């Protein structure tokens, strides 16, 4: 019986951020426990004991419970330091740059990209209303400026923190997949040479390909 | 002096970094002011360091790091052997610190910073604050603070019985919420949140930062 559990559903980019981290660290032995926002499973007293904000994912390692996908990813990266891809940088300097770009993802990229994806993909299902085009327009303008910075960075470095793939790149994958492939905003990336190359590279990694298969399998189960 | 912090003491994000330096008993650094009123943060020389045009920025010899939470982590790691241990002692401690750093970042800060922006920073720049936004964000904050109250009724600090970077990270914006925006009721009306706030905002490290704000 797996001592690692991931609570949530694979339609959540926060959940797939964790699954991708597990895959990069070659960790297969975990159990997915479905918690479907659409049925309110995230609001039951039992779930709120694990994640008092009622959000997915939650994570358990034996009797140790953790939430917030980026914190879970860091935990997995630390616990399985000796296997799979080194995700946090090897030197003090590399570590600092990984942390910097994790914050850029968290503070700058994800709020914009996440809002665009929500409006274009989830507003109807989750909030019962049509896309707010004004919000999409505003967020796209912000995101264009942010992606210009990324393009400049990636012109000189293969990955965000330097010449090595890290958790900082990984953290971007699930939302970017939704932005390009579901919300159909791929122009943002295809119009920027180095950004596009970076996206092609990180989204072709076996870890993400594996998670895409898990997502598809999840969509087939009802 | 190898460490330079580019920022302003009244900036909440700069304050987060200055508080971390103080907790780690680091005095040997230079605070380089960046005059936001003349757009110094949007000039080419600054954008070379911080391409998003925001303060603060840290320079340590030839390493440049931005994003205050990343800067705080860097300081915490570099000065691990001195001052307050900001990530606890064990792997589980560290994980819980990271969890509550994310809660601050994802759930607490968006509400609080929005309220502080509308009521303090917008007027400072000659703009009218949006009362509707303030009302909406205060409602969200109430729900978040209920969860903090329940948690802090069982734990002295966010990650457990030890002060950590997770608690510290909340201080600057909460200080502005309570003292400048005058919207501290949510904090002061909750017994354990209030006690936690009193405790962390009375720390010597935070006092050195507020002394620099004047």
Automatic annotation (TrEMBL), chain A:
Its EC number is 2.5.1.18. The keyword Zinc-finger does not apply. Gene3D superfamilies: 1.20.1050.10, Glutaredoxin. It catalyses: RX + glutathione = an S-substituted glutathione + a halide anion + H(+). Residues 91-222 form the GST C-terminal domain. Keywords: Transferase. It holds the Pfam family GST_N. It comes from the Eukaryota. Residues 2-84 form the GST N-terminal domain. The keyword Nucleotide-binding does not apply. InterPro entries: Glutathione-S-Trfase_C-like, Glutathione-S-Trfase_C_sf, Glutathione_S-Trfase, Glutathione_S-Trfase_N, GST_C, GST_Phi_C, Thioredoxin-like_sf. CDD domains: GST_C_Phi, GST_N_Phi. Belongs to the GST superfamily. Phi family. This is glutathione transferase. It comes from Sphagnum jensenii. The lineage of its organism: Eukaryota, Viridiplantae, Streptophyta, Embryophyta, Bryophyta.
Automatic annotation (TrEMBL), chain B:
Coiled coil: none annotated. It holds the Pfam family GST_N. It comes from the Eukaryota. Residues 90-214 form the GST C-terminal domain. This is glutathione transferase. It comes from Sphagnum jensenii. InterPro entries: Glutathione-S-Trfase_C-like, Glutathione-S-Trfase_C_sf, Glutathione_S-Trfase, Glutathione_S-Trfase_N, GST_C, GST_Phi_C, Thioredoxin-like_sf. Keywords: Transferase. The keyword Transferase applies. Belongs to the GST superfamily. Phi family. It catalyses: RX + glutathione = an S-substituted glutathione + a halide anion + H(+).
């Amino acid at each position: 019986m797996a001592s690692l559990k991931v609570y949530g559903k694979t339609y959540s980019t926060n959940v797939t951020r964790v699954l991708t981290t597990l895959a990069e660290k070659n960790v297969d032995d975990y159990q997915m426990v479905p918690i479907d926002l659409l049925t309110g499973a995230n609001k039951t007293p039992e779930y709120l004991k694990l994640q008092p904000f009622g959000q997915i994912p939650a994570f358990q390692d034996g009797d140790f419970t953790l939430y917030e996908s980026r914190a879970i990813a860091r935990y997995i990266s630390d616990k399985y330091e000796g296997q799979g891809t080194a995700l946090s940088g090897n030197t003090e300097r590399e570590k600092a740059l990984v942390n910097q770009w994790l914050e850029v993802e968290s503070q700058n990229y994800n709020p914009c990209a996440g809002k665009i994806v929500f409006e274009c993909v989830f507003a109807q299902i989750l909030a019962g209303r049509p896309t707010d085009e004004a919000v999409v327009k505003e967020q796209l303008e912000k995101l264009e400026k942010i992606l210009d910075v990324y393009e400049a960075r990636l012109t000189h470095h293969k990955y965000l923190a330097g010449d090595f793939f890290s958790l900082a790149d990984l953290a971007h994958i699930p939302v970017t997949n939704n932005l390009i492939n579901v919300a159909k905003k791929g122009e943002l990336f295809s119009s920027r040479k180095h950004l596009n190359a970076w996206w092609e590279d990180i989204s072709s990694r076996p870890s993400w390909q594996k998670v895409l298969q898990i997502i598809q399998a999840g969509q087939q189960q009802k | 002096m190898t460490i330079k912090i580019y920022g302003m003491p009244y900036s909440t994000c700069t304050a987060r970094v200055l508080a971390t330096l103080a907790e780690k008993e680091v005095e040997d650094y230079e605070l380089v002011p960046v005059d936001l009123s003349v757009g110094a943060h949007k000039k080419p020389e600054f954008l070379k360091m911080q391409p998003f045009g925001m303060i603060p920025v840290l320079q340590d010899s030839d390493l440049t790091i931005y994003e205050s939470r990343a800067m705080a982590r860097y300081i915490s790691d570099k000065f691990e052997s001195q001052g307050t241990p900001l990530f606890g002692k064990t792997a589980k401690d560290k994980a819980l610190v990271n969890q509550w750093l994310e809660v601050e970042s994802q759930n607490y800060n968006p509400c609080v910073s929005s309220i502080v922006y509308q009521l303090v920073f917008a007027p400072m720049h000659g703009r009218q604050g949006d009362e509707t936004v303030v009302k909406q964000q205060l409602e969200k904050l109430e729900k978040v603070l209920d969860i903090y109250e329940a948690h802090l009724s069982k734990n002295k600090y966010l990650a457990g019985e030890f002060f950590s970077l997770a608690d510290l990270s909340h201080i600057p914006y909460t200080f502005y919420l309570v003292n400048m925006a005058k919207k501290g009721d949510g904090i002061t009306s909750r017994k354990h949140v209030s006690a936690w706030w009193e405790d962390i905002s009375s720390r010597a490290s935070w006092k050195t930062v507020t002394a620099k704000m004047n």
